[in-house]
Amino acid sequence: MQSLALVTGASRGIGEATAIALAKQGHTVCINYRHQRQAAESVAEKISQIGGDAFIFGADISDEEEVRSLFSLLDKHPSPLRVLVNNAGILFHQSALADIAADRFHTTLMTNVIGPFLCCREATKRMSTQHGGGGGVIVNVSSAASRTGSPNEYVDYAASKGALDTMTVGLAKEVAMQGIRVNGVRPGLINTDIHASGGEPNRVSRLSSKIPLQRGGESEDVASAIAYLCSQEAAFVTGTFIDVTGGL
Ligand code: NAD
Where, if anywhere, are coiled coils annotated (predicted)? Predict the structure, then answer.
């Protein structure tokens, strides 16, 4: 039977590449986006051109009501939800901790931690074999920053990804007996638009000589790791992380 995969923040970057990789695995993909409807439509079109199946749904994943609407829509789909990729995330401009406003820290946590929490809560209810579901897989897109702390740059972002990692480990143990696996990926420096929002569009090329593999990562590098974690090949893998950092 066809199954559903939800990828949050999938209108561009790592989310887009992941949506395409999961469509190639045979999932019908729900492409969640926040503002970029046209971009989301174009990802759905790319998936349809390769013979896959996808649809789009606009929702701010940090908003509880919007997340409920998103999952209500998925409930109406004939295929069961089997995969959730919590990809949506935000990064504010580089700043020392002393200059970070409480509002900014709050917004970062709402998007990077509360959003994945809300989606995990809704998804596990539907996937749980103890509640009539067929099991499933969750992948949380964290960051290498969860371990470095990103001093003088984005301590708020690093802390949010640290919280996401802890939730990943705890949830994996909580839902293992419900047939649900939960893992994370920790990308390093990946060529996407997030660095423009971080205030340094050329960050990846500036730092690429420091990466042992001597290049910045591409969205597809991260998507491959996510696709592996979602596949049957990873059937005995839960509560852990894949670093996709080129050795950094
Ligand atoms: P990106 O900015 O291209 O993608 C992030 C997506 O999330 C965007 O489409 C954005 O619209 C969406 N989004 C943000 N807030 C949202 C919300 N509240 N609701 C719904 N969608 C929302 O950047 P990316 O690099 O593709 O980032 C994807 C993930 O990878 C993020 O979680 C990011 O923290 C993580 N990451 C990226 C890098 C990197 O170097 N690019 C490194 C480590 C981790």
Answer: none
Centre of ligand 1 from the C-alpha of residue 168, in Å = 18
For residue 2, name the pLDDT band (cuts at 50, 70, 90).
confident
Tell the residue number behind the tokens 């409807």, with chain if given: 37
Ligand 1 near 168 CB (within 6 A) = no
Active site residue 33: no
Mean of the per-residue pLDDT values for the chain? 97
The CA-based dihedral angle spanning residues 32, 235, 146, 163, taken in that order and rounded to the nearest 10 degrees:
70
Its domain, for residue 158, covers 4-244
CATH code of residue 8? 3.40.50.720
pLDDT at 69 over 90: yes
12 in contact with ligand 1, CB cutoff 6 A: yes
Q: Is the CB of 88 under 6 A from ligand 1?
A: yes
Q: Which amino acid, one-letter code, is at 154? A: Y
What is the ipTM score, two decimals? 0.99
pTM: 0.98
Tally of structural domains, the chain: 1
What is the C-alpha to C-alpha distance for residues 22 and 4, in angstroms, rounded to an integer? 10
Residue tagged active-site, from 33, 154, 157, 228: 157
Residue with CA nearest ligand 1 atom 39: 190
Rounded to whole angstroms, how far apart are CA atoms 23 and 53? 7
